[in-house]
Amino acid sequence: MVWILIPAAIVFLTVVAVFVFGWFSLRPVNNPVKPIPNLPPSKLTEVRFPSAGKTLQGWLVEPETQPSKGVVLLVHGWGSQAADMLGWCDFLVPEGWTCFAIDVRGHGRSDYENIVTMLKFAEDTHAAGKWLSTKSHLSSQPLFILGHSLGGAAALLALSEGFPAKAAIISSAFARLEAVTAYVLKKAFLPPKLFGWIITLTWTLRLKIDLLAYQPERTIKRVGIPLLLTHGDRDPVVDYEELHRLVEAAQGLDFRVLDVPQAGHNNLLDFAEYREGVLSFLQLKSSP
């Protein structure tokens, strides 16, 4: 009898441990706030704006020559911050684009929140768009959105809810919740195929919503603007297969694909074909 109870107890305790792990995995990573790097000649403005009772931080980077070609809202990924997205300004601002990089709640300089999800990322994206609409010299310019990783998934959700962008760039985003749980479990050295369902169940119980309904491969079907879907084929965080799933889900929509050979998750900016592809897409979609 004992030889049966011991394995059963081990399995039970493991399931409980994974459940507890999943329960607390929605708490944002408390990374140190990064200093603002040197930027090309531009006007840099620190911005604060409200979102769901929180105060968010953002950096507005405008080219010296005004008006700009358009405004690109930059949305970072999980555990990241606006400072990480300012690298995009290095090549966008000199070409005449205004960039608005925001810290989603629980990240960077924005107010802390105990539980942060893709839905709250999307809510903060809407809040950033609302702030831009109150500035006359910005609201008169075409608005674009560039979301990276979880920020890309949140951008698709916000767009499916009517975010007023002219076009969007979705960078290194996942298509399925399964890809997120796999990454979370791999970091904890746990097999995703065995324990993924526990993480999904945990998040569903804690948030009291069906997260599967908000998966990017579902929300992308409700996006009515042009998209650039881009991904590195050596991405260790979000598997390259997720791009293929987004492409499959986007059939019938106005979209382009930008593959970046040899690129990982956070080094897309190191590749000229990525920078050139983003600029080309923005230029094309900013034309009347």
Automatic annotation (TrEMBL):
Cross-referenced InterPro entries: AB_hydrolase_fold, FrsA_esterase, Hydrolase_4
Presence of the UniProt keyword Hydrolase in the record: yes
UniProt keyword Hydrolase present: yes
Entry keyword set: Hydrolase, Membrane, Transmembrane, Transmembrane helix
Occurrences of domain Serine aminopeptidase S33 (ranges): 67-181
A single GO molecular function term of this UniProt record: carboxylic ester hydrolase activity
Gene3D superfamilies: alpha/beta hydrolase (3.40.50.1820)
Pfam families listed in its UniProt record: Hydrolase_4
Transmembrane segments: 6-26
Name of the protein in its database record: Alpha/beta fold hydrolase
Biological source species: Eiseniibacteriota bacterium
